[in-house]
Prior knowledge:
Shape: rod-shaped
Mean pLDDT: 74
Radius of gyration: 45 Å
Largest sheet: 6 strands, parallel
Low-confidence stretches: 66-76, 78-89, 247-258
Strand order of the largest sheet: 3-2-1-4-5-6
Helix content: 40-55%
Distance between the termini: 80 Å
Number of strands: 6
Structural class: alpha/beta
Order of helices and strands: HHHHHEHHEHHEHEHEEH
Amino acid sequence: MGDYSKDDFLQLIKRFGAFLTVKISNLFGTLDSRSVGAIAGLAFAIVFTWRVWRSPSPQRRLPKRQGATSSSSGVSNHASANVATSGVIPSSEDSNAQNVIDEFFQTVKPTLGQIVRQRLSEGRKVTCRLLGVILEETSPEELQQQATVRSSVLEVLLEITKFCDLYLMERVLDDESEKKVLLALENAGVFTSGGLVKDKVLFCSTEIGRTSFVRQLEPDWHIDTNPEITFQLARFIKYQLHVSPNKPERTAINVFNSTTLEQFFGSV
Length: 268
């Protein structure tokens, strides 16, 4: 019944509006300002009444529930009220979207090649001692018995040869030691997998000779285990890496201390 009365009232308003339109169009030229104002006021009143009629009636407030409720139901009602008030409903789609965003912006771990280039400060030429750095042996006397390439440093060594002009050098006591060193490097794949050639493996009979090699080559980086040599070369070489389990007593400003070569290139 209410809907039927509402429809009749709307039809009546439409008909009356059409009637006013015709009358206004016919009499607009003859009406004075007072008549026009009265008609405009009547139209405004009709429109206002129509809008009030269409507005939904306010919902009745529900009476408050009496009686004590359990703590568990109170917590659940409170949580439901929070969700209803905020209008935020968790969904699996939102969770999946957040996971995609997290994966996209997660920190990308740098590759070993990127670490090597960053550590070497884009240096193009590197000289490196063999004993204690590339080889397991630590003295020329041990090289007379055998030469063993450290497997843990091999990957770093190959990465250095990709980006830098690398020269390896060592002091030996005889020609047999030289052959053992070259054979160990060859068996490790240094000459085939990397950019190193046998002509860039230099041998000398004294420590002064090794220092002379470094100064003549003028590298960007020099890697050594002897603190005396790193100290002497500090005036001529921009960057040096001193590989030693113990911190040397004398160091230069541009000398870095590290336990092993692979630890130096192991993290950024």
